[in-house]
Write a structure and sequence with these properties.
Layout: H1 5-12, E1 20-23, E2 26-29, E3 32-33, H2 34-41, E4 45-49, H3 51-70, E5 77-82, H4 89-96, E6 101-104, H5 107-118, E7 128-130, H6 136-147, E8 153-157, H7 161-169, E9 176-183, E10 199-200, H8 201-211, E11 218-225, H9 235-254, E12 260-262, H10 279-297, E13 303-308, H11 310-313, E14 317-328, E15 334-338, H12 342-345, H13 347-351, E16 357-360, E17 368-374, E18 383-384, E19 393-396, E20 407-411, H14 417-421, E21 435-441, E22 447-453, H15 458-465
Parallel strand pairs: 4-21, 5-6, 5-13, 6-7, 7-8, 8-9, 9-10, 9-11, 11-12, 12-13, 15-17
Antiparallel strand pairs: 1-2, 2-3, 4-14, 14-15, 14-20, 16-20, 17-18, 17-19, 21-22
Length: 477
């Protein structure tokens, strides 16, 4: 009976597959030797492979533009990157190479955009969609951005009162481009019925007539909606989509300046080796549905916007750990203790039970066993034990006498992990953030890698906590 880890994967999934292969008995990721990275940087470390970001953007743009051409659709497609998903300079710079537009969520995002502009990364014609709750500071900075020459800046109203704050902070002479976000009804298993984000669709028409129509300084440009569970071929998604589309058509009949339909984010990424999603089918259905509905009602098709964050950067990232010790706590449970904390480095897995692709880097010819993965923090919740193979983590067995440790990789972790855990800050049990490695390719296609930031030091943590530099000579036991 075949029972090596390679046989398990080979019999369960198509392997090799996009992004993953074995080279000299070690796992590779997008052609990058993980053995080379481990030998060069040691563990733990996280890395991001920048070319994958551009690949994802090109893929979505090509599929949308192909569908637009095939259906004779008269609107255009605009790809926005959500800065909140990953704020790092190298990430946004890579996305901007593909001429993406941007979506912001807070006041500091405006400073980020101005910084990128000063470096020549984007020009003032770039479309910027402003989501999130609009504090006075956020609105002032949006107006500063517009005063700096960014004329394609669109403020998406998340509530009715945000228009009052806009009116209070600006003058009648300023022309403000706005969009309206439609609040969706959540899925049945949600703890609440209607999302707190956006304006109820039953109030939208009345709000438009009373507060927007006829206002010379308010230009209504976009209808926005976002389904939290993502763009999926389900009755729930198509129901919310159709509700938003019908609302767009009704508003379009009343407002000539309305020209854009924003689908929000929601394209899924691969979180296990058996992942299947027909991006082309979903895009074609979206384009066809909008085209048919608009033709039926005699209105011009809208420009389509998406705000892809996780889809853009998620599959570009990975975190590599070393198994420090194997612990058999009873007859049926085996623990692999890794050299960092899962709570700190992959908070999505701990807090909302997000799944990632988990694979060993080496020892694929060993037999496999069911294990729990534990971090080195003192918290009982610092573990990972759920994978798509029967809700179990199955990994190669390790021999305690083997001088080479087992290395593990969590893949497609490029979105949100640093934002949620607080990059460079204080972590649980004062476990340091691992080193951060950037991987790119030069003009000839050769791999280029470097350390963006070393592992967090004691003094970096002490500085945040307010401690002085320790003097070992003064310490007496």
């Amino acid at each position: 009976m075949k029972n090596t880890y390679f046989d398990l994967i080979d019999q369960s999934f198509y392997f090799p597959q996009e992004g993953f292969d074995l080279r000299d008995d070690y796992l590779s990721f997008h052609g990058i030797s993980l053995k080379y990275l481990i030998e060069k940087y040691d563990t733990p470390f996280r890395f991001i492979y920048l070319p994958k970001i551009s690949d994802q953007i090109k893929k979505a743009k090509n599929l949308f533009n192909r569908a637009i051409k095939n259906y004779g659709y008269r609107g255009v497609y605009n790809y926005c990157y959500c800065t909140k998903c990953n704020h790092f300079h190298h990430v946004i710079s890579e996305a901007l190479k593909q001429k993406v537009d941007l979506e912001t969520s807070s006041a500091f995002d405006i400073d980020l955009i101005l910084n990128l502009y000063s470096e020549g990364k984007l020009d003032k014609n770039r479309i910027v969609v402003h989501n999130g709750y609009k504090t006075d500071e956020y609105l002032r900075k949006i107006f500063d951005l517009q005063d700096a020459g960014f004329k394609n800046s669109i403020i998406i109203l998340d509530s009715i009162r945000e228009l009052d704050r806009i009116n209070a902070l600006t003058t009648e002479e300023r022309k403000v481009k706005i969009g309206l976000r439609m609040a969706i009804n959540e899925q049945a298993q949600s703890a609440y019925y209607t999302s707190r984000l956006g304006i109820r669709h039953t109030e939208m028409i009345d709000f438009f007539h009373k507060n927007i129509k006829g206002r010379k300084n308010i230009e209504f440009k976009m209808l926005h909606f976002f389904v939290d569970s993502g763009i999926k071929d389900t009755l729930y998604y198509w129901g919310e989509f159709q509700k938003a589309l019908n609302l767009y058509i009704e508003l379009k009949k009343e407002c000539e300046t309305l020209e854009s339909f924003n689908l929000g984010g929601g394209f899924p990424i691969r979180n296990h080796l058996g992942f299947e999603y027909n991006y082309e089918y979903m895009i074609n259905e979206i384009i066809k549905s909008i085209k048919e509905a608009c033709d039926k009602e005699g209105v011009h098709e809208p420009d389509i916007y998406t705000e892809f964050g996780r889809y853009t950067v998620g599959e570009s990232g990975a975190i590599i750990f070393k198994v420090l010790e194997q612990k058999k706590q009873n007859d049926t449970e085996t623990w692999y203790i890794i050299d960092n904390s899962l709570m700190n480095t992959i908070p999505d897995a701990w807090s909302i039970h997000e799944k990632f692709i988990l694979l060993p880097i080496n020892k694929w010819d060993n037999e496999y066993q069911r294990v729990n993965i534990g971090g080195i923090s003192c918290d009982h919740s610092d573990y990972y034990n759920s994978e798509d193979l029967n809700q179990e983590v199955l990994l190669p067995k390790v021999d305690d006498n083997d001088p080479e440790p087992l290395y593990l990789g969590f893949f497609h972790t490029g979105a949100y992990q640093d934002s949620i855990s607080g990059y460079g800050g204080i972590k649980h049990c004062l476990i340091p953030s691992p080193k951060h490695v950037i991987i790119d390719r030069d003009e000839r296609g050769n791999t280029v890698d470097y350390v963006y930031r070393e592992e967090q030091s004691v003094m970096e943590m002490f500085k945040i906590l307010g401690y002085k530099k320790p003097n070992n000579q003064e310490v007496k036991l």
